[in-house]
Amino acid sequence: MSGGGRCPDCGSAELVEDSHYSQNQLVCSDCGCVVTEGVLTTTFSDEGNLREVTYSRSTGENEQVSRSQQRGLRRVRDLCRVLQLPPTFEDTAVAYYQQAHQLAGIRTARLQKKEVLAGCCVLITCRQRNWPLTMGTICTLLYADLDVFSGTYMQIVKLLGLDVPSLCLVDLVKTYCSSFKLFEASPSVPAKYVEDKEKMLSRTLQLVELADETWLVTGRHPLPVITAATFLAWQSLRPSDRLTCSLARFCKLANVDLPYPASSRLQELLAVLLRMAEQLPWLQVLKLDKRSVVKHIGDLLQHRHMLVRKAFRDGTAEMDGQGQGQGLGDGDVGSSSLELPAGKRPASPALLLPPCMLKPPKRVCPIPPVSTVTGDEDISDSEIEQYLRTPQEIRDFQKAQAARQAAQSVPNPT
Amino acid sequence: FSPFPTSQLPTVSPPPMEETYLELYLDQCSAQDAPTPPRSPLLSPSVPYDVDMLTSSNPETAFNPQLEEVTETSGSFSAVDLSFLPDELSQENKDQAVIRSKHEIEENCKTQSQQTTLPLPSQLDTGLALNSSSGSSSHSHLHPADGNSAQPSPEKPHSLPLASITPMTPMAPISECSGIVPQLQNIVSTVNLACKLDLKKIALHAKNAEYNPKRFAAVIMRIREPRTTALIFSSGKMVCTGAKSEEQSRLAARKYARVVQKLGFPARFLDFTIQNMVASCDVRFPISLEGLVLTHQQFSSYEPELFPGLIYRMVKPRIVLLIFVSGKVVLTGAKKRSDIYEAFENIYPILKGFKKA
Prior knowledge:
The complex is a heterodimer of chains A (414) and B (357).
Chain A: E1 15-20, E2 23-28, E3 34-37, H1 44-48, H2 67-82, H3 87-102, H4 104-107, H5 111-128, H6 135-142, H7 146-160, H8 169-178, H9 197-213, H10 222-237, H11 239-242, H12 247-253, H13 262-277, H14 281-284, H15 297-302, H16 304-311, E4 312-314, H17 315-321, H18 324-336, E5 350-352, H19 355-358, H20 381-385, H21 391-409
Parallel strand pairs in A: 4-5
Antiparallel strand pairs in A: 1-2, 2-3
Chain B: H1 16-31, H2 59-71, H3 91-114, H4 160-165, E1 183-192, H5 199-205, E2 209-211, E3 218-223, E4 228-233, E5 237-243, H6 246-262, E6 270-282, H7 289-295, E7 300-302, E8 310-314, E9 319-323, E10 328-334, H8 337-352
Antiparallel strand pairs in B: 1-5, 1-6, 2-3, 3-4, 4-5, 6-10, 7-8, 8-9, 9-10
Keywords (chain B): DNA-binding, Nucleus, Transcription
InterPro entries (chain B): TBP, TBP_CS, TBP_dom_sf, TBP_eukaryotic
Main location (chain B): nucleus
């Protein structure tokens, strides 16, 4: 493989990479002139021969640094370049990686962990500068499992004592929405599905804010909420043509992966919007359902603050005043009033609680009876003997074990 | 319940009702001993708006380390001088001192509300939206942090002077301020049987034992009452898990030792220690985890991409709490039951401050 240079002696373009004493050399195959030699040192002529030698690969810097650390640092730099991060991020991430490498636990860790560590350093840098990078993206780039990544990430944050701020939702919405390929017509995207980026972005932001206010975001992965919000925003901007498109198809069109929880987030968001719609007088008469409410999302978002306040009463105040069962009972009354005929008074407010608190508990945990065990009671012999085998049982057990061993050692005829 | 609204403070002196509550609170403080002020997680970061936090241990001694820092924060609070609160106050000094500070704070807040824009604190507080553009206390993390590229210093409490002096709710005695008792779910204990054991023999002679040396180098034994599991190692050490109380754990460990004795080994019962206790409880109101991680950054870790709960590492007592949005709290890492109770009493006022309004 030639590097596109020419031999300084004979001017031939036939430059070959060759290893001599395990040192990489670029040699002219015509006259045998060694064009560049080694990666640990460079000379002016090396650089002149169009062999780009970065400072981090040149003399001196690498003498103190172990090979695995060099590899890791290179990985960190590559990641920053692939993600097109601003140049200052690279320096910070490299500094974190070097810091991490000082720790004994990291230096002796497996290669897989060190690889993942490079990703962790990049992620921490991005989080601290409010660059919306999700862990999913980094894991995809590293070809790593999320659990391996999470273990290393939590460990390194704790060991280095870093303060890592939360993912900035607004920036994430902007970046994620911009990645949807719906802003220009193409063979896969018919004209009626194309949407203006700014309108979609602003509406998605409003929907995400609404989800945040109504407890749909806390404790959940942020991305599926944004997917659901983008879908609703897109649908509501031209409902007549787009109501027929499903969430899965939408993501396929937009060339974006559909995260699994997105459909359940969508249902939750629609339920919230329906509750809000009950408070708008001109929508009460329409008896909206989950499909028809999409047409009115614009109106609902315009008055969202007032509607949320009216549609939901404070779940936390309810908890204080009454028992939880009673409070939920009122909430059920509120929901059943959806069936009230048009013209009646608006539905009584539902409880504003996270969905996990609105669902009935899967199983009621009984309060264990107060135990009067002191720990020093007498232990009867009979109680212990119930756990011991009789001699006959022991013999039987040994026979059975031997038979099993024999059966296992005989190879299966089929 | 709404967060302490800075722009709507009462402009009259506190009504007589509040005076009695003040006295109640001050009685409380004077009655308490004052050991070395703990670096309670309550007071170091920015404090929520509910004054119930004061019902936790050592409120006034813990104030002091914070007060100096308070006076150095953003300029709008610089006029509030709280250094008058010494460790020990005589009754009438306290009354005067606290009332005086209340007036000061009220004046301060009146001047504040006249300002159109206040410098946004470097850490955005949920609910304390001084600009109050939206009526609802939306999560501040939705608004991009202003130039918050460096790690924000945790010692920048904003609402501490406002919320801390004026008790807004009647003080209950400290021992029953939350009324919720965490239930112990699991106890892990170890004991030394002080003799070498033949695991194969134990697995052969005991019905309730399983032993798979290729998978794990210990016998796994179970008993029905108390319902527990034990790992018995060939060195004679044993781990007992699954009990719901310390006494049950001890009884269970003794039963396992008896079983080993009956199998012919000279087992003893040395160094029984509780290694870990896990408890859980329910505060019964939803908790804003984003807000909690913003104000208690140095103790909390909230990564919704990884785990739905917030991991709160309390320093004193050294307990790890898993806090979920539904209000359920899991406490673990305790060696004593009192640690669990203390940790919960510490966290309860913090959580109440994050009930979204």
